[in-house]
Write a structure and sequence with these properties.
708 residues, mainly beta
């Protein structure tokens, strides 16, 4: 850092702006201003004192915590609009932004707020500041451990004390490793102690967890703070003056006055995304690092067991989306990516949704949970291994048995089967699981369109032909010569007289009547009464059980023209793609049905879903259908639209209890930002909204830990 002399002496220059913290800039400016005023700043203790920010955090009567951001809602609206492929409502955003001036925090520098049992918002922090102390950095992330310990990440470091643990003054309170500055703090009292009144607000009631590293919110794809069931905290940390990151595990208790860090992923790996399990295992996505930058070699997906064993799940994919399976025996994971058990190089058409169990033997750890759109042909033709195991290994042209043909027909004709969509990239946006392990996704979802079933039939014997197609029965019984003709059909006799005259029918043959095989090609299955598909109607013959075994080759003994003895074999089935394509694509929300290995589309086909939330195992989502709507999913009934023309951003349980939910969002009907709770069971849900008081700015993060 250098200072410019002369009339512009207040300007500072850094050799690499991107590597310098804003805190250092503020500190340099304050120090320079002190020198201009004739005060040399004194000794090191004075530097620390002049820039000191001492905090008193008060969580009395709190049921939750918020961080605020005056532009958060606008940013989230644009993000949702980009995902849904629609234009953001710039008029609403303009009004929202103009109103931000009226919702500034005033004298309260902290963006950390508490929510009480009534859902109302108030300040949490009181400050004492040195004369050159910079403004308090905003809090970017909040973490609450299972033991109700609270962790806070500030956007940058600040000087929070004047001496180190041994009582020595800090040589340089702004240095990257100064014991007097910090970015990551832990509240000394637990939330339970605040709830029972044993914790009291006092200055310096937060302690520094790590002052040797930098925490950058932009690097986080999962939660900044993650915890195992023992309340160890995990976070991804960078270095102030060096490239690379390290993923750490930190015990909740100090040893010899220090929090103990364990390196889970070292600096040679650039971590893209990561999740900690309750058992203390770790799933992460990363690449080999070159000077702190991704190498471009292709990302890998790995698992570190609680015992420290490393297992590679998959590699050579660019956009894994995953979520550990909670409640499973041992650590398992749901993820979208390439087949972990395949030795082939990952391709876009190999990716799907898998369950992976690291405890199983290599080569048998993965289970494909659903069918993906790029695999629809394998699914339709029953070529997946699970189908081969269930129905046998057949082709649609080699006389498959009745069970195989029935399943093939069902898959061809239905218009309800649902797949993970998209022909490239990663179509899964979000994965969540409830307490019972039921999994749901938001993403590109394809719903199948009904195909056209056609078959080729081989006939022997005497039978009825209606409109050029064999028909075996009418609504009363199997066809005979007379009932066939009565229904406008042709009683058909295919064969020849052997060893006698040249008669054309069995009744006129003086020898033995030999039946000929006769084929009818490309019969279209076309049933108007779907409840009677096994009884009659032209085209139903494609669904006849028939005789596809070797016994069909045996002859048929025919004694007269009226003999009804016959055989039928279905030699070929074909499913023709509809003109609209095999699938219709949606940005939807779906349930992962493990019993069928398929998705169940839960959102409406008129909706594009941008996000979902689970609150007490009840599913809510926000969607766009000509206008935004907020919806509650119901298992056995139609979904309930709670709010219309309303874009919701955060959802959680209301501190008021009673089944209410706390939310915030943009109300397009009056271009206003709303924060409060509603009763999803009310007859008039919009009328049940109770707006919370005290909020300034917009919600950036929300954590609710207490409800009535």
């Amino acid at each position: 850092m250098t200072f410019e002399k002369g009339p512009r002496a207040s300007r500072l220059f850094f050799s690499n702006d991107s590597q310098q913290s804003q805190a250092a800039l503020d500190a340099g400016l304050h120090l320079l201003q002190g020198n201009i005023g004739g005060d040399d700043g004194g000794d090191d203790m004075d530097q620390a004192s002049d820039n000191l920010v001492s905090l008193k955090l008060d969580l009395s009567n709190s049921a939750g915590l918020l961080t605020t951001d005056s532009t958060s809602s606008a940013r989230m609206h644009r993000k949702n609009a980009r995902y849904l492929g629609i234009e953001p409502n710039e008029r609403a955003l303009a009004l929202m932004q103009r109103s931000s001036a009226a919702t500034d925090s005033g004298d309260d520098e902290s963006n950390l707020k508490k929510v009480d049992s009534n859902g109302d918002v108030s300040s949490t922090m009181e400050m004492q500041k040195g004369r050159w102390a910079p403004s308090l950095p905003a809090i970017s992330s909040i973490g609450i451990s299972p033991a109700k310990e609270a962790y806070f990440q500030f956007e940058r470091t600040f000087v929070y004390r004047t001496t180190d643990d041994s009582g020595q003054s800090c040589d340089d309170p702004w240095s990257a490793s100064s014991p007097c500055s910090c970015q990551l703090f832990k509240l000394k009292s637990t939330l339970s102690e605040w709830a029972d009144g044993s914790a009291k607000p006092e200055f310096d009631n937060m302690e520094c967890v790590d002052n040797e590293h930098r925490l950058d919110s932009w690097m986080a794809t999962g939660a900044m703070f993650q915890f195992d069931s023992s309340s160890n905290v995990y976070f991804l940390a960078g270095f102030e003056n060096a490239q690379g990151t390290v993923l750490y595990k930190v015990s909740k208790e100090k040893v010899d006055g220090k929090f103990q860090k364990t390196e889970m992923v070292n600096r040679s790996i650039c971590v893209r995304d990561w999740r900690v399990t309750k058992n203390g295992g770790l799933f992460y996505v990363g690449e080999n690092c070159l000077d702190g930058q991704w190498s471009g070699d292709g990302a890998f997906f790995r698992y570190v067991s609680p015992e420290g064993t490393l297992t590679e799940v998959a590699r050579n994919w660019w956009d894994y989306n995953f979520e550990p399976i909670e409640g499973a025996s041992g650590d398992q994971v749901l993820f979208f990516g390439p087949d972990p058990d395949s030795s082939e190089v990952a391709r876009w058409d190999s990716a799907c949704l898998f369950k992976f169990d690291p405890s199983l033997a290599a080569g048998s750890r993965a289970t494909q949970l659903v069918t993906c759109n790029q695999h629809i042909w394998d699914w339709l033709e029953l070529r997946k291994q699970i189908d081969k195991d269930t129905y046998g290994n057949y082709q649609n042209w080699n006389k498959p048995p009745f069970a195989w043909r029935t399943e093939y027909t069902n898959r061809c004709l239905n218009n309800s089967d649902t797949f993970i969509g998209s022909s490239s990239g990663s179509p899964v946006k979000t994965i969540v699981q409830d307490s019972l392990g039921k999994a749901y996704i938001v993403g590109d979802i394809s719903k199948k369109n009904a195909g056209t079933l056609k078959c080729t039939v081989e006939m022997k014997g005497n039978y009825c032909v209606l409109n050029g197609i064999p028909a075996l029965r009418n609504s009363s019984d199997n066809y005979t010569n007379s009932t066939c003709v009565s229904d406008g059909g042709t009683w058909t006799i295919k064969g020849y007289c052997s060893g006698g005259n040249y008669a054309s029918t069995p009744s006129t043959c003086t020898g033995t009547w030999e039946s000929n095989n006769w084929w009818y090609n490309d019969i279209e299955y076309k049933i108007s009464d779907t409840d009677n598909v096994t009884t009659y109607e032209t085209g139903h013959i494609c669904l006849e059980e028939g005789d596809n075994s070797s016994s069909f080759s045996a002859g048929v003994s025919i004694s007269s023209d009226n003999d009804t003895t016959m055989k039928v074999s279905i030699n070929h089935l074909r499913c023709d793609e509809p003109s609209s394509g095999w699938t219709t694509d949606y940005k939807g929300m779906a349930y992962v049905d493990n019993s069928t290995n398929m998705l169940d589309l839960l959102s409406g086909t008129d909706e594009q879903v941008s996000e979902m939330w689970l609150v007490n195992d009840e599913l809510y989502y926000t969607a766009y259908a000509q206008q935004y709507r907020f919806v509650k999913e119901k298992t056995s009934d139609n979904n309930t639209t709670l709010l219309t023309n309303f874009e919701v951003y955060h959802v959680g349980p209301s501190p008021r209890g009673g089944g209410k939910i706390l939310f915030d969002g943009l109300n397009f009907s009056n271009n206003s930002y709303t924060f409060g709770d509603l009763d999803p069971s009310a007859n008039d849900v919009k009328g049940s909204i109770t707006t919370s008081s005290g909020l300034t700015g917009r919600i950036r993060t929300m954590v609710i830990y207490g409800t009535d």
